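Standup notes, protein team

Yesterday: finished cleaning the Edaphosphingomonas haloaromaticamans set.
Today: ComEC family competence protein structure.
Blockers: none.

Input for ComEC family competence protein:
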Amino acid sequence: MASEFGTAPSMASPALQTGRGRLWSMGIGRAFRALEAGLDRERDQLFLWLPVALGAGITAWLLSPGSRQWIAFVLAALGGGLACTLLPGGTRARRIGIIGGLALAAGCALIWWRAEHVAAPRLERPLVAAFTARVIAVDRLAARDIVRLTLASPSDRELPPRIRVNVAAADLAGDILPGSRVALRARLMPPPPPAVPGAYDFARVAWFQGLGATGRALGPVERVGDTVPRGFWQTLMAWRGGLSAHVQAQVAGSAGGIAAALATGDQGGIAEADADAMRRSGLAHLLSISGLHVTAMIGATMWIMLRLLALSPALALRAPLPLIAAGGGALAGIAYTLLAGAEVPTVRSCVAALLVLVGIAMGRDAITLRLVAAGAITVLVLWPEALAGPSFQLSFAAVTAIIALHEHPRVRAFLSRRDEGILAGWGRSLAGLLLTGLVVEAALAPIALFHFHQAGLYGAFANIVAIPLTTFIVMPLEALALIADLGGLGAPLWWLAGKALALLLAIAHAAGSAPGAVKMLPSMPGGAFALMIAGGLWIALWRTRMRWIGLAPLAAGAAWALATPAPDLIVTGDGRHLALRDPDGGRLALLRPRAGDYVRDLLGEAAGVDEAGIAIDDWPGARCGPDLCAVTIDRNGRRWALLATRSPNFVDIAAMNRACATADIVVSDRRLPRSCRPRWLKIDRPFLSRTGGVAIDLARGHIRSVEAGRRGKPWAESAAAPYRNPTPAERRASGPAAVASGNQ
């Protein structure tokens, strides 16, 4: 019975209420005991979730728009951990809740501190400047005839303290080394944001690298004055550059570029077509110095040291040779990591390898997921921003998938050594390689699709040949050739290494150009990606039957990603480039068909299209001239009128106003007059300055913008709020003849 003040009090008897409370308490007690029993069965796996909680806190910071949300998340995490202290003492659920809350808060606070700590002045707008600067690093991109200089600008100039400039190789005067002082004239600009939604965010990477501007040199770059004395790092980078140039001089073409990448991590000598073939075939991981290369270096060093030391009977009988060899391998791994530039994947691999060596020295099995977790914690504490990059995600996903697979009892039993013939043993090993490759490809596919919008389908098969070829033939030949070069005897070994690398490139081209070799997917929603990652981690990190619960979020995320429609219209952040997807989804029509390969690839990846774009002039019913282009788009029974400018010439204002009035969407790379009033969207320079590049789904009237994912971040160019998608009610109210709010 209701009263005027609310619901009437319950008429149940006190005894009945007490009975219900007891039943409720008993239910909670049974659930808690079941939870404790499950955690007890998985007690050896609980530590593996510590880096996951740390990474979740970092992710929360990356996804939240401002300091209020960051503070709220930290307080909520600490509050959740504090609430867990109310659970019964001595239980695993209590400890996990407390530690998990602290890890979540620590992850968010850690990357927040890191972003503030690395903050450096940044250029506000493009400019052309002549200045002198000290060279910090030199990267030679031989395949593009470009040298990339990282410079420290003088403090008395109104320039950021750290700048990166591309210089044509022909414009370098003299030998430019780290520590040199150079004079140049360059066009500089702020680190650019993603051109379209889902593209690579260089501005975020530049922020954490301390880069305040990028650009290109206009004319020759000359060395002036005396070279500043170089420190350890500059000297090491100079050695790295010299070694890379020496390797590329011994092996011509992209084969030499790959050889240099294996030695120093310098990928600048690989032609773009060959690098693309390596990516499409799933072999690009061989070009980045990571676990495979560091392990090969340490393993080879240990093997050689053991064999040499064992030649002495006295040492073999009295000295702990495995421990000495492990120490030598550790030194070799550290030296290799430093020579390769100490990038995050290399450092992660080196840390993991050192932990393995410590385990070997202690006589324990070190190749476990605990090793992976320790390496992940080390990287996240030192470089929390690495979590957002594909390198961290791909490397840890691959290693986790491999170890989790081989720790499974059935797989371990299948691959264990046994008394059988040579052919049967080889067949079993080959089956293990194929199974491992398939599992790794499945683990990496969501990450590759999220970051690069494509995934290779034949990578597992290509890696069966490519990994042994690289590990056991190419790298040993290259190491022996470098040693032989000390006496001028390396030419035959370099010839053999070149032939092996040519075979590697042939495998990459064959696998990358096969029919259906690459699966393209448009920009994936972040929620779908998060579900797939969460499901994959749940399956990989647990050991009991509850691991299969992870199939539910994994399948849901995959279905969400596959069901997400590709955008019909994509506009870059500068407004110069526009792409229309045809109704079949197989091709793109480009406003400027002479756009370079970079822009074509960028737009194709955002739309999930692998085919070359056509000119928008060839779109059915398009009416294009040198200044304007009018196109009609049919989507789901509705016709949309698009108008776009494609020249710097101004159009007669009356004619422009009439054209705008008949269009639903108008796109321009300049500010359009206020009298230009399209029926829905006016995408011009003021609009794009607020939103960045946009991707539009016409069927749903949904607009994705670049700035929506960058709002509140210190590297965002503007703090202005991104364009808000109109609600269905607003779209119905506006109608086809009204001007969209906020777009005038």
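Follow-up from PR in the comments: Residues 422-452 form the longest helix (31 residues).
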